[in-house]
Amino acid sequence: MPARHPTPALALLLGALLAAPLAASAGTQIGASGKTFASDAWACALHPTRGYAPQVVAGLYQPAPTASAKVLLNGQRVARVDAAAPSATVWLANGLNSVGVKINKKNNDAFAFDAALTYPNQPNACIPDTSANVVAGNVETAASGKSYAVVQPGCARNPLTGRTQAFVNLFDAGTWLLNVSVNGVPLTQLNGTTRISVPVFLETGLNLITAANGTLSVDAYVRDVPAGFCL
Length: 231
Description:
This is Secreted protein. With 231 residues, the chain is mostly beta strands. The protein contains one helix and 20 strands. It has one helix at residues 8-19, and strands at residues 23-25, 28-30, 36-39, 43-47, 51-60, 68-73, 76-82, 87-91, 95-102, 108-115, 134-136, 139-141, 147-150, 154-157, 164-172, 178-182, 185-190, 197-201, 205-213, 217-225. The two termini are 42 Å apart.
């Protein structure tokens, strides 16, 4: 795949951001002013409508009672923070991002995050490439052959939430010990004997289901649930 090169203007911007004096602090970085902070790296989480996507947290660092600031993404305001609510979640765009925390014209700190895509037509940096999985009819089998999942979601009441939600069934394809997670949250363990399958309930937008056989393999399935699918 050809190397990705930022535009000259964006390259200059990122160079300036990366040169700013930032100090690491327990999973965060402190802005050059000493009054703001952001996550030290982006993480995957569940967006209310987009589904599984990259995000960071940014805001005021040890704010005074009257402090406030605007939080910006690539120059556009996305949130306001103050002493009562000093942090905000920022959902990143694909590629290079500048997250700013602007207290005033003098204190306008910026933090660079690269949520670059790694394969063609990737929805966002949190969604792995599942093109090696095999789909036959309404069943998708992982490249490892250790698990398979229903392709088309159904609707049922989720006993944990009390809501009717989309779901798919995930199956152990042998007697593998599989740790199942959905959108980064552990769900259950399958062993192919006493526990062969599990219904995996999904949220609106992109969902990532994984079935890990220890460190040997991680099966992945992606399901995109439209808004109002189970209404």
